[in-house]
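FAQ: What does the model actually see?

It sees only this:
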Amino acid sequence: MSNLLTKFAIIADPHYYSETLGNSGKAYERRAGSDQKMLALSRGTVLAALEHIKNSDAKFLLIAGDLSNDGERVSHEEMREILYEFKKVMPVYVITATHDWCCDGNPRRYEGDNIYHDVETVGVNELHGFYKDFGPDEAIAEFHTHQDKVSYIVRPCEGVSVFCLDDDQDGIGSSGYSDEHFGWIKEQTEEAKKRGDVVFGMQHHHLFLTEFDRAINGKDSVEHRIKQVTKFADIGFPVMFTGHSHMQHIRRVETEKGNHFYEINVGSISGYPAPICYCDVFENGIDIKTEHLQKFTHKGKEYTNDYLKNHATALFSDIIKSAAVNEKDKFLAVVEAIGLGAEKASKIRTFARPVLKWLDKLTVKKAARILNFISFGKAIDKKAAKEIGNVKVTDMIFGAFCSILDGSLIKHEEGSAYYTVFTQALAFPLRLIKKLHIKNGGLIRTLTHIRNAAPELMTGGPLDNNNWFCEF
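And it is asked to produce this:
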């Protein structure tokens, strides 16, 4: 490594939620139960994260968008007051994103069984002025988008230019940049390099898609993001910090021209795994070390990172458990929270309960027997299945979901029994439909992405998603 230029911290997706909007009652509980975020505890997570950063050797803080839950003015006002207090210790630079201007036009507050939409929000064209004291007031250059939102550049120290970019809309219906906007980014990158500055940036929306993302997103969306990555790499813009996905990932790509680009997708501080990335900036790269909020206090009560983890998996575990022990009201409430409605939830329960009750007790040993029976002994390695035979299938499912969020903090080595059984199980559906000669292209593509996701979920992939040196 070369000379150290500065140190900073970055968090993403605080989704600050004012408790004046309601934090109890059936309507709120349905909302909170269907989300990885901890809305009612967001003040506690934000304050604890900022205290953690105050006690570090970071020189400034970046926040990569979605400062508020859904653009509510009261949430923004409370969040801004917190940031003013933090700014007494070190500079903070923020960007805003779609949740900061309630892009769906449907703000909500909760009271008992009811949801109300009479919530005042901060308009999209107000955000620049609202948060001007947290970056824009120090900008050496600005670009105003067609929404009158602002990308800006700051120099927190000599030799470093930080691009704080608004990528909410590219003007033609996607996240990203218009040609004019990207032309400004390219021009400013060239100017920064003439000054001899290290260049890196943050935007809200993530650029790289995991295999599960690819299963959900269409081909056009995938290609759109690949083009954005290539454009940044080929103008010599080496590192971008992002948020949005609530997943912790570090990715690297090399273009056909031999240029490379890193994306550090920072998970949400408002829910599991509550990451804080600490970054040392050198002349030849950025060294990233991720710490996690292990505990925080809210209204005198202490919560742990495990509490956040349990909340993240609760949506799935509550559906399974409530079906298994026949808690009808709880099952219906959780399924309704997904947005299916009371009538559909009731119908689903009729046929889903026996399946979920069976799944709740299913072990790897039993599951392997079933899959091997269907495939004439070709699906799951028997020796591996026997080694972890007593592991519950639901525990493997919940563990995989947490790995998606935390970048595989718990790693399973390639060749281990756990790795072998899990990867073979995720490959089984694709093998089955090919064996049955099913020609559905969309289904085959989705199941291929799911199969391909398995090794990364087990090991974290080629890079350590929480700690890495991004070399320029």
